[in-house]
Write a structure and sequence with these properties.
Phosphorylase Kinase, domain 1; Transferase(Phosphotransferase), domain 1; globular; alpha+beta; 2 domains; three-stranded antiparallel beta sheet; about 300 residues
Protein backbone atom coordinates (compact mmCIF):
# COMPACT_ATOMS: atom_id res chain seq x y z
CA UNK A 1 0.00 0.00 0.00
CA UNK A 2 1.17 3.52 -0.78
CA UNK A 3 1.84 6.18 1.78
CA UNK A 4 -1.15 8.24 2.84
CA UNK A 5 -1.08 11.80 1.48
CA UNK A 6 0.25 14.34 3.93
CA UNK A 7 -1.94 17.17 5.14
CA UNK A 8 -0.93 20.74 4.21
CA UNK A 9 1.86 21.72 6.58
CA UNK A 10 0.84 25.38 6.52
CA UNK A 11 -2.62 24.45 7.77
CA UNK A 12 -1.45 22.06 10.48
CA UNK A 13 0.95 24.67 11.89
CA UNK A 14 -1.94 27.10 12.34
CA UNK A 15 -4.54 24.60 13.50
CA UNK A 16 -2.52 23.10 16.33
CA UNK A 17 -2.99 26.40 18.13
CA UNK A 18 -6.69 25.55 18.11
CA UNK A 19 -6.43 21.82 18.88
CA UNK A 20 -3.39 21.92 21.15
CA UNK A 21 -0.35 19.69 20.91
CA UNK A 22 0.47 16.92 20.50
CA UNK A 23 -2.04 16.54 17.68
CA UNK A 24 -3.04 13.31 15.95
CA UNK A 25 -3.75 13.63 12.22
CA UNK A 26 -6.02 11.02 10.60
CA UNK A 27 -6.81 10.83 6.88
CA UNK A 28 -10.57 10.46 6.45
CA UNK A 29 -11.05 10.48 2.69
CA UNK A 30 -9.15 10.92 -0.57
CA UNK A 31 -11.47 10.96 -3.56
CA UNK A 32 -12.66 13.04 -6.48
CA UNK A 33 -9.88 15.56 -6.09
CA UNK A 34 -10.46 16.39 -2.43
CA UNK A 35 -8.92 15.13 0.79
CA UNK A 36 -10.08 15.39 4.38
CA UNK A 37 -8.35 14.81 7.71
CA UNK A 38 -9.30 14.90 11.36
CA UNK A 39 -6.83 16.75 13.57
CA UNK A 40 -7.32 15.89 17.24
CA UNK A 41 -5.47 17.54 20.09
CA UNK A 42 -5.95 17.96 23.84
CA UNK A 43 -7.99 21.15 23.37
CA UNK A 44 -10.29 19.98 20.58
CA UNK A 45 -10.60 18.70 17.03
CA UNK A 46 -11.09 20.09 13.55
CA UNK A 47 -11.92 18.71 10.13
CA UNK A 48 -9.37 19.85 7.54
CA UNK A 49 -10.10 19.75 3.83
CA UNK A 50 -7.76 20.46 0.92
CA UNK A 51 -7.66 19.88 -2.81
CA UNK A 52 -5.48 17.11 -4.25
CA UNK A 53 -2.72 19.08 -6.02
CA UNK A 54 -2.02 16.20 -8.38
CA UNK A 55 -5.62 15.61 -9.42
CA UNK A 56 -6.87 16.36 -12.92
CA UNK A 57 -9.35 18.88 -11.48
CA UNK A 58 -6.98 20.47 -8.93
CA UNK A 59 -7.79 24.01 -10.04
CA UNK A 60 -11.56 23.44 -9.88
CA UNK A 61 -11.33 21.84 -6.44
CA UNK A 62 -9.18 24.68 -5.14
CA UNK A 63 -11.78 27.17 -6.43
CA UNK A 64 -14.53 25.12 -4.78
CA UNK A 65 -12.62 25.19 -1.49
CA UNK A 66 -12.31 28.98 -1.68
CA UNK A 67 -15.98 29.20 -2.57
CA UNK A 68 -17.01 27.18 0.50
CA UNK A 69 -14.94 29.45 2.72
CA UNK A 70 -16.70 32.46 1.21
CA UNK A 71 -20.07 30.81 1.85
CA UNK A 72 -19.20 30.09 5.46
CA UNK A 73 -18.28 33.72 6.03
CA UNK A 74 -21.55 34.95 4.55
CA UNK A 75 -23.68 32.39 6.39
CA UNK A 76 -22.02 33.20 9.69
CA UNK A 77 -22.59 36.91 9.15
CA UNK A 78 -26.26 36.17 8.40
CA UNK A 79 -26.60 34.17 11.66
CA UNK A 80 -27.34 31.02 9.69
CA UNK A 81 -24.23 29.28 11.07
CA UNK A 82 -22.71 29.25 14.54
CA UNK A 83 -19.72 31.54 15.00
CA UNK A 84 -17.41 28.67 15.91
CA UNK A 85 -18.09 26.43 12.89
CA UNK A 86 -15.52 27.97 10.54
CA UNK A 87 -12.05 27.67 12.11
CA UNK A 88 -9.44 28.79 9.55
CA UNK A 89 -8.76 28.77 5.82
CA UNK A 90 -5.87 29.58 3.55
CA UNK A 91 -3.56 28.69 0.71
CA UNK A 92 -0.72 26.18 0.52
CA UNK A 93 1.73 25.20 -2.17
CA UNK A 94 -0.84 22.77 -3.59
CA UNK A 95 -3.88 25.04 -3.62
CA UNK A 96 -6.47 25.80 -0.93
CA UNK A 97 -7.43 24.39 2.47
CA UNK A 98 -10.34 24.88 4.86
CA UNK A 99 -10.80 23.82 8.48
CA UNK A 100 -14.13 23.60 10.31
CA UNK A 101 -15.23 22.50 13.76
CA UNK A 102 -15.21 18.72 14.19
CA UNK A 103 -18.71 17.28 14.68
CA UNK A 104 -18.99 13.94 16.43
CA UNK A 105 -21.69 12.13 14.51
CA UNK A 106 -22.39 9.43 11.96
CA UNK A 107 -23.86 9.87 8.45
CA UNK A 108 -27.63 9.57 8.19
CA UNK A 109 -27.57 6.18 6.44
CA UNK A 110 -25.61 4.56 9.26
CA UNK A 111 -27.63 6.30 11.95
CA UNK A 112 -30.93 4.97 10.58
CA UNK A 113 -29.77 1.36 10.23
CA UNK A 114 -31.98 0.19 13.12
CA UNK A 115 -34.99 2.11 11.83
CA UNK A 116 -34.76 0.44 8.42
CA UNK A 117 -35.69 -2.96 9.87
CA UNK A 118 -38.82 -4.25 11.61
CA UNK A 119 -37.02 -3.96 14.96
CA UNK A 120 -37.22 -0.19 14.51
CA UNK A 121 -40.97 -0.35 15.08
CA UNK A 122 -40.84 0.68 18.72
CA UNK A 123 -42.09 3.63 20.73
CA UNK A 124 -38.61 5.02 21.43
CA UNK A 125 -37.63 5.20 17.75
CA UNK A 126 -40.47 7.45 16.63
CA UNK A 127 -39.53 10.54 18.67
CA UNK A 128 -35.87 9.91 17.84
CA UNK A 129 -36.61 9.97 14.10
CA UNK A 130 -38.79 13.04 14.50
CA UNK A 131 -36.03 14.76 16.47
CA UNK A 132 -33.51 14.13 13.71
CA UNK A 133 -35.88 15.58 11.12
CA UNK A 134 -36.80 18.55 13.29
CA UNK A 135 -33.21 19.59 14.07
CA UNK A 136 -32.35 19.17 10.39
CA UNK A 137 -35.15 21.48 9.29
CA UNK A 138 -34.32 23.98 12.04
CA UNK A 139 -30.90 24.41 10.51
CA UNK A 140 -32.24 24.67 6.96
CA UNK A 141 -34.80 27.21 8.14
CA UNK A 142 -31.98 29.52 9.29
CA UNK A 143 -30.28 29.26 5.89
CA UNK A 144 -33.51 29.78 3.99
CA UNK A 145 -34.46 32.81 6.09
CA UNK A 146 -31.12 34.35 5.07
CA UNK A 147 -31.90 33.74 1.38
CA UNK A 148 -29.65 30.70 0.99
CA UNK A 149 -30.14 27.12 -0.18
CA UNK A 150 -27.68 24.46 0.96
CA UNK A 151 -28.03 22.86 -2.50
CA UNK A 152 -26.32 19.61 -1.44
CA UNK A 153 -28.73 18.14 1.10
CA UNK A 154 -27.97 14.42 1.17
CA UNK A 155 -27.25 11.60 3.65
CA UNK A 156 -23.45 11.99 3.73
CA UNK A 157 -23.72 15.72 4.42
CA UNK A 158 -25.92 15.13 7.45
CA UNK A 159 -24.32 13.83 10.64
CA UNK A 160 -26.39 12.48 13.51
CA UNK A 161 -25.01 13.10 16.98
CA UNK A 162 -25.35 10.88 20.03
CA UNK A 163 -28.16 13.17 21.21
CA UNK A 164 -30.13 12.41 18.05
CA UNK A 165 -29.62 15.83 16.48
CA UNK A 166 -28.83 16.44 12.82
CA UNK A 167 -25.79 18.53 11.92
CA UNK A 168 -25.39 19.83 8.37
CA UNK A 169 -21.93 19.99 6.79
CA UNK A 170 -20.31 20.80 3.41
CA UNK A 171 -21.39 24.19 2.11
CA UNK A 172 -19.29 24.30 -1.05
CA UNK A 173 -22.28 24.17 -3.41
CA UNK A 174 -24.60 26.44 -1.42
CA UNK A 175 -26.51 29.04 -3.42
CA UNK A 176 -26.90 32.49 -1.92
CA UNK A 177 -28.65 35.72 -2.84
CA UNK A 178 -25.50 37.24 -4.38
CA UNK A 179 -24.57 34.33 -6.62
CA UNK A 180 -24.58 36.19 -9.91
CA UNK A 181 -20.76 36.21 -9.70
CA UNK A 182 -20.28 32.59 -8.63
CA UNK A 183 -16.83 31.17 -9.26
CA UNK A 184 -18.05 27.58 -9.76
CA UNK A 185 -21.39 27.08 -11.59
CA UNK A 186 -23.87 24.92 -9.69
CA UNK A 187 -25.01 21.93 -11.74
CA UNK A 188 -26.79 19.90 -9.10
CA UNK A 189 -25.22 17.65 -6.49
CA UNK A 190 -25.81 13.98 -5.63
CA UNK A 191 -28.07 12.65 -8.37
CA UNK A 192 -30.35 10.60 -6.10
CA UNK A 193 -31.38 13.64 -4.03
CA UNK A 194 -31.61 16.20 -6.83
CA UNK A 195 -34.97 17.99 -6.93
CA UNK A 196 -37.02 17.70 -10.16
CA UNK A 197 -36.79 21.41 -10.96
CA UNK A 198 -33.00 21.35 -10.60
CA UNK A 199 -32.81 18.24 -12.78
CA UNK A 200 -34.93 19.97 -15.41
CA UNK A 201 -32.73 23.08 -15.38
CA UNK A 202 -29.51 21.06 -15.64
CA UNK A 203 -30.87 19.15 -18.63
CA UNK A 204 -31.99 22.34 -20.36
CA UNK A 205 -28.77 24.36 -20.04
CA UNK A 206 -25.11 24.11 -21.13
CA UNK A 207 -22.65 22.54 -18.71
CA UNK A 208 -21.06 25.90 -17.83
CA UNK A 209 -24.38 27.56 -16.92
CA UNK A 210 -25.09 28.21 -13.24
CA UNK A 211 -28.39 26.76 -11.99
CA UNK A 212 -29.59 28.69 -8.95
CA UNK A 213 -30.98 26.27 -6.37
CA UNK A 214 -33.84 27.57 -4.24
CA UNK A 215 -34.85 26.62 -0.68
CA UNK A 216 -37.68 24.45 -2.00
CA UNK A 217 -35.09 22.23 -3.69
CA UNK A 218 -33.50 21.63 -0.27
CA UNK A 219 -36.88 20.46 1.00
CA UNK A 220 -37.20 17.89 -1.78
CA UNK A 221 -33.66 16.69 -1.08
CA UNK A 222 -34.47 16.45 2.63
CA UNK A 223 -37.50 14.30 1.90
CA UNK A 224 -35.52 12.16 -0.53
CA UNK A 225 -32.75 11.61 2.02
CA UNK A 226 -35.16 10.59 4.78
CA UNK A 227 -37.11 8.36 2.38
CA UNK A 228 -33.92 6.65 1.22
CA UNK A 229 -32.30 6.16 4.62
CA UNK A 230 -35.49 5.01 6.37
CA UNK A 231 -36.79 2.63 3.71
CA UNK A 232 -33.54 1.55 2.04
CA UNK A 233 -35.04 2.59 -1.32
CA UNK A 234 -34.35 5.74 -3.30
CA UNK A 235 -37.58 7.70 -3.88
CA UNK A 236 -37.10 7.78 -7.66
CA UNK A 237 -36.43 4.32 -9.10
CA UNK A 238 -34.13 4.03 -12.09
CA UNK A 239 -31.53 1.64 -13.46
CA UNK A 240 -28.12 2.22 -11.86
CA UNK A 241 -26.53 1.59 -15.26
CA UNK A 242 -28.05 4.78 -16.68
CA UNK A 243 -25.72 7.74 -17.05
CA UNK A 244 -26.31 10.81 -14.91
CA UNK A 245 -28.27 12.77 -17.49
CA UNK A 246 -30.67 9.88 -18.07
CA UNK A 247 -31.19 9.56 -14.32
CA UNK A 248 -31.89 13.28 -14.10
CA UNK A 249 -34.47 12.90 -16.87
CA UNK A 250 -36.31 10.31 -14.77
CA UNK A 251 -36.19 12.59 -11.72
CA UNK A 252 -37.39 15.57 -13.77
CA UNK A 253 -40.58 13.64 -14.52
CA UNK A 254 -41.58 14.26 -10.90
CA UNK A 255 -42.84 10.77 -10.03
CA UNK A 256 -41.70 8.98 -6.88
CA UNK A 257 -42.30 5.59 -5.31
CA UNK A 258 -45.27 5.54 -2.93
CA UNK A 259 -43.76 5.59 0.54
CA UNK A 260 -46.24 3.21 2.13
CA UNK A 261 -45.26 0.54 -0.41
CA UNK A 262 -41.64 0.41 0.83
CA UNK A 263 -41.72 1.69 4.43
CA UNK A 264 -40.27 -0.75 6.98
CA UNK A 265 -43.12 -0.05 9.42
CA UNK A 266 -45.93 2.51 9.70
CA UNK A 267 -45.28 6.00 11.04
CA UNK A 268 -48.12 8.10 9.55
CA UNK A 269 -47.00 11.56 10.66
CA UNK A 270 -43.44 10.95 9.46
CA UNK A 271 -44.69 9.52 6.16
CA UNK A 272 -47.01 12.46 5.56
CA UNK A 273 -44.20 14.97 6.09
CA UNK A 274 -41.78 13.12 3.78
CA UNK A 275 -44.44 12.79 1.09
CA UNK A 276 -45.17 16.52 1.31
CA UNK A 277 -41.47 17.27 0.85
CA UNK A 278 -41.45 15.23 -2.37
CA UNK A 279 -44.24 17.18 -4.09
CA UNK A 280 -43.15 17.64 -7.73
CA UNK A 281 -44.20 21.31 -7.74
CA UNK A 282 -41.90 23.38 -5.48
CA UNK A 283 -44.82 25.63 -4.54
CA UNK A 284 -46.63 22.63 -3.01
CA UNK A 285 -43.82 21.72 -0.62
CA UNK A 286 -43.79 22.89 3.00
CA UNK A 287 -41.15 25.36 4.07
CA UNK A 288 -38.42 24.38 6.49
CA UNK A 289 -40.08 26.49 9.16
CA UNK A 290 -43.39 24.71 8.63
CA UNK A 291 -41.68 21.33 8.76
CA UNK A 292 -39.96 22.20 12.03
CA UNK A 293 -43.39 22.51 13.62
CA UNK A 294 -44.78 19.44 11.82
CA UNK A 295 -42.18 16.90 12.97
Amino acid sequence: MGQAPASPGEAVALLTAYTGEPAVIQLLSDRRGSRAWKIQGPKGAVALKANDPDGDNARDKAAEMAQEDDHLRHLTAANALSLDYRVRAGTWDGGRWLAVKWIDGVPLWRALALARGPEGDRASVRPWLAGIARTWTEHLALMHAAGWAHADVQPTNTLITAAGHAAVIDYALACGPDDGHRRVPYRGALTHTTAPEVATAVLATPTDTHVQAQPAADIWSLGASLFWCWTGHRPVPYDDDLDRLDKLAVIANGSTTTLRDVRPWPFPAFEDAITACLAPDPADRPTAKELTAAW
